[in-house]
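Appendix B. Raw example, untouched.
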Amino acid sequence: MVYRDAREPDAYLKLPKIAANDLKILWCTEWYDGPEAGVLWYHNRRCYFATCRLLDDDTKIVLVVALTEEQLGELEYRVTKWVEKVGGKSPHVYIDIPVEKPGDPRLFMDYHTEMEKRPKPDYSQNQVLGWFEFLRSSELCFGMGVEKSNKS
């Protein structure tokens, strides 16, 4: 199933469910109360991930999407520029790559202005490999500025 179709309501249920311990988030490209989209490690390759559905305040359904070399190159370019301009880790962005020289958080808008000039990758025809439930309290979130939920 391609990404465009997998985003339809409940379409993800036709795809394999992936165990969270088979994944490692490498960096985020979008963030809202936790990761919304970015790059993760799955089956010895980097893949795109994106939230497709919110189940409740703490649980999201996230799709794992195969990337072309060109798309991965663009995502790597963007994260490298983020590190150069803004820096590595912040409360809203987790980056699991070495940071030699910290950037300047005041350059946040410079980064976004530069990226707006670049075409965003189109994932609509990419193959979706599966999905997983993302809990804000999950191990995938630790170290990314997300506090473990106190809900029981």
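End of appendix B.
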